[in-house]
Amino acid sequence: MKKTRTRDEARENELVAASKAMSPQARLEAAARLSAIAFQFHRAGITYREGLGAAKSVEGESQGEGVDET
Amino acid sequence: MKPDGPGQSAILLTEVATRLDGLRIPYAVVGGLAASFHGVVRSSLDADVVISAVDRKAVVPGLIRELKEAGWNVVEREGGFEDPVASVIAVSDGYANRVDILTGIRGMAPGFVSRTIPSSLFGATLRMISLEDFIAMKLFAGGPRDVEDARAALRVSSSALDLRLLKELAAGYGRVVVRSLVQLLRDTGVE
What we know:
A: 2 helices; 86% helix; B: Beta Polymerase, domain 2; five-stranded mixed beta sheet; 7 helices
C-alpha cells in the first residue's frame, strides 16, 4: 500500500511539474486534443464490450444447440 | 472551426460561446477544460459553461431557440428543489459532442463573470472561470474528482492566487466549503 501511495505521489508531482511548465492556454489546448484521443479510447472500449457480449451470446447459443430440455 | 467528428466537444463549445456572446449572455467555462486551464491537463468527454442571467426565465427561452436554430439538439433539464444547479441546457451535435450550459449555481458569487479570463482556443476566444471561483465551486461540488481538481489547481497556479478573494467566495457557499478550503490550503502548503 505504502509503495503504491509513494508511486501515486511521485506521478502527481510529475504531472504538477509538467503542467506548471505550460501556460494556461497551452494546457487548455492540450486538454481539448487529449479529449479527442480519449474519446477514441472510449469508443474502442464500447466496441470491445459489445463484441465481447455478442461473442458470449453466440457461444451460449451454440452450447445450447441439441440440448433436450424435456 | 466546426466539429467534423466525435470527441470535439471543445470545438462545439467555441461555437456555443459565440452564440452566447451574440446574445450578450455572460458566461464562464467551467468543468474539465477549466480544470486543465488552472491545473493539470485532463480529458473530458463534454464541455461545461455556467451563464449569468439576472432573469433566467427571460433569458433561457431565447437562448434555447437560438441554439436550436443553429441545428443542435437542445434539451433543458430543471434542477430539483435541493439541486444547487437551477437547470442544465444540454447541447449536442450529430457527432455526440456535448456542451452543458448551467443556468446558475446556488451560492456562486454573481461577480464571477467580471473575473473571467479570456483565452484563445482553436482561433476562438473563450471566457474561462477565474482560479478563485473555480476552486470555490469545485469544493462546493465536493465529489472526489472535484476536490482533486481544486487541489491540482492550487498546486499548479497558487502563485496567481488571490487568497483573500478565494476565502470570500468559499464563505458564500457555506461553512462546509470553508472547512474544506482550510483543509485543502493546509494539505497543499498554501497556508
